[in-house]
Amino acid sequence: MCTDCVQKEYPDRGNTCLENGSYLINYVGCAKCHQRDFVLISNKATEDEDGEEIVTYDHVCKNCDHIIARHEYTFSVVDEYQEYTMLCLLCGKAEDSISVLPDDPRQSTPLF
C-alpha cells in the first residue's frame, strides 16, 4: 500500500461502503510513475466465510501496475440487520447497518 498516492489515509466515509470501484477524489496520482490516470482493479476475490461475504481487490496504477491500495469489503446478516464494512487506504473506512424488515425498529418512534 502506498501512502504517497493518496491525499488522506483511510478517510472516514461514514456509511458509504463500496463493493467495487475507487474513490478517485482521494487519489493524487501514482508515486511510482508520477501519472494521474485511471485506477484499475485487479486480483479481485470473493470469499464466503460462515455467512459473511468478503470481497478483496487491489487498486492498481493503469500505467505501471503499481499497487496503490488493498480494498476489503464485507457483508453479513446479523440478527435482523444487513451489516456492511469497508476498509481501504484509498477509499476509506465505513460501516453501515440496514434492517431487513420493512420498517427499521431503530427508526420507529415510541407510541407512548
Describe the overall structure:
There is one protein chain. With 112 residues, the protein is mostly beta strands. It has no helices and five strands. It has a five-stranded antiparallel sheet, with no helix packed on it. Strand 1 (39-49) and strand 2 form a beta hairpin. The mean pLDDT is 89.
Structural class: mainly beta
The proportion of strand residues reads 35-45%
Contiguous runs where pLDDT drops below 50 for at least 5 residues: none
Helices and strands, in N-to-C order? EEEEE
Share of residues in helices: under 10%
User: With helices defined by DSSP (H or I, 4 residues minimum), what is the helix count?
Assistant: 0
Radius of gyration: 17 Å
- What does the average pLDDT come to? 89
Keywords:
mainly beta; 0% helix; elongated
Condensed summary:
This protein is mainly β. The protein has strands at 39-49, 52-61, 67-78, 81-88, 92-99.
Topology:
Layout: E1 39-49, E2 52-61, E3 67-78, E4 81-88, E5 92-99
Antiparallel strand pairs: 1-2, 2-3, 3-4, 4-5
